[in-house]
Amino acid sequence: MLSINGTRLMERIHALGEIGKDAEGRRTRLAASDAEKEGRDLVAGWIREADLELVVDRIGNMFGIWQTEENRLEKPLMIGSHIDTVINAGQYDGCLGVIGGIEVIKTLRDAGIRTARPVVVGAFTNEEGVRYSPDMMGSLVYAGGMAVDEALATVGTDGTVLGEELKRTGYEGTVQPGFLQPEAFVELHIEQGPIMDVENVKIGAVENLQGIHWQRVTIQGAANHAGTTPTALRADAGLAAAKVNVFLRQLVEKSGGVATVGTIRLEPNAINVIPSGAVFTVDLRNPDKAKLEADEKALAGYFNELEQSDHVKISTERLTEFDPVLFDQGIVRTIEQAAAARGLSCRRMTSGAGQDAQMLARICPTAMIFVPSIGGISHNPREYTRDEDAVAGANVFLDVVRELAGGSY
Amino acid sequence: MLSINGTRLMERIHALGEIGKDAEGRRTRLAASDAEKEGRDLVAGWIREADLELVVDRIGNMFGIWQTEENRLEKPLMIGSHIDTVINAGQYDGCLGVIGGIEVIKTLRDAGIRTARPVVVGAFTNEEGVRYSPDMMGSLVYAGGMAVDEALATVGTDGTVLGEELKRTGYEGTVQPGFLQPEAFVELHIEQGPIMDVENVKIGAVENLQGIHWQRVTIQGAANHAGTTPTALRADAGLAAAKVNVFLRQLVEKSGGVATVGTIRLEPNAINVIPSGAVFTVDLRNPDKAKLEADEKALAGYFNELEQSDHVKISTERLTEFDPVLFDQGIVRTIEQAAAARGLSCRRMTSGAGQDAQMLARICPTAMIFVPSIGGISHNPREYTRDEDAVAGANVFLDVVRELAGGSY
To answer: What domains does chain B contain, in order, with CATH numbers?
Structure first.
């Protein structure tokens, strides 16, 4: 049974992981930064070393194209992920999918296998969205969901313009995003959650991706003395915000989604003053669009109740809205079969996080392969996937790519 | 019926209220600041103008002493309050009691009344506790609850030392705090709460003062991805903090106390990260010591429950603990009778806020007279008491002082 070179895979993950350490030793490769350029240069070297054609499109997506005279008129199978990171990141998120993709193509090629269609590995620009908004920008633009000129004009949190930074770092290409129409897309990624670790499952066949709704909620009450204001005469914005948090948990326990109040700010934020204001965010997710919308409607109804019961005013602002994504059942089954053939435990998964694959799913059949994240830790230097699990995932990836690209002919 | 000069009372309140406006026009006279010195100078002038003996003690408490050859061996009746303010303060809090006290003595004196005992009006140092901690410091030291040298060595939020600032501004006296043992103490003050305004009551006969317990609560959970972490595997410190806030409201609705979570900080405070930490304050008050302690015990029990149910660790730190104070029933009845004699509606009140009177209550029979605060607003430039209500309160104050100091002889 053909297998990837696990030692080389892990060496390359660690080599890329060394790039972008800041003064405090934190691994940070924000999109189109000097540190990310250094990472791109390393990956570009591996692409060339695998004898792939390196193409960079206008939004900076990098591709390594493996095609032959015989298959170059076929629509390619596309694989890949991203190599930009959050601040103080781990080394697996995104990188496993890009490096694993190069490894898979190199393994097939070195084995003398000739596929029925081209295989293209991509590293998409600005998946994390830390420096430039929105996240998953490169794959969004590639899939036609955002105009390339609009994306290039994006001003970052540091005041820079994405297009200028891509040019400065040498990764503004000339090819139009979307220049290759994929036959299908497959992404290998760490779970970034604890489910597979807790259940000791080795392969996740990702069949869908949660819809994500973000709102900023502002509750206005009245600042009054914490000692002299009787309970009945209070309009406590902080208490109302607390009730929302408790309500949200009850809501998603019924709907099967997840909800998080990750940020809050109270005004005036003094020990002995009843909060006049509470501003907080609600991150609401559900793989089922109807349930997500029903939860959000129930939340809006609860806001109306609170305005009456707690004498407050509540306003909301939409920050992000991604619909749930259904992946391709055929590819999901191919992943399950590949895992079974290698004797690896496998379960169907929902991606809780946003992924480049959700953008590619707009233009072609798509699915993802997950490998376990120990403790579910991600976006953190302690992000960790066991070597054996990463390698096992890359081997399933290899088998799936070989299957989807068509056997030798 | 003898009455104070209402026009002069209000003119003086407004004159003192003009002092200490900062660059943004906010009224701020922090203890022992240049602005407060200017206020002290104005008040000292009124004390001298009323022919009272001005005495400043070592902690900077200012007194205007009215005694005669006939009564100087009797224990004095003490009245008064404070003239330091919070940041961006109103003009009534504290000042009404000091200026009203001077006005009462001047009125009695000008009317040729000779009391059986001396009457002393005091302005106590650092009641607000904004620049130097603890609050009510001057009256606490006066009542023997804190050593004067310890108080003088207090380092402020701005790095200054209270003793040095009192010396610099000319209000470090040489007399030992507690040099006069009062027969009784009475303080006129605005309610700083909404009850009298809502109920349209003109005089509050304050019979007790809530106990105040402040804690800082730290909840430790686990930071995880808001999308990829199933509800069952979360340790959401922010949600646990929210539950505490909701629990507290239910608790005090039964016990008759009040509870406030005025401050909170989440870590890492990111939209899509489950909070790993929540640090917040709990301000818990009750006029009944047993109920206050029972509530606090119930809260501690709830923390234990939460540690189990929510997979978090909770620790608490005591910030402030003042027992409830019972005022003197005899003085309270005297206030009620004085209000009735003037045809003013009156109700017994609990002081929700801390007051200088609670410190004096340690060494002599004490009570307070409240006048309404419109909308309950205090510690705010919109703090307002109608002229007629302030004057009515000062006239009741006059009658009570005349009664307690003994009639003419």
So the answer is: 6-209+324-404 (3.40.630.10), 211-322 (3.30.70.360)
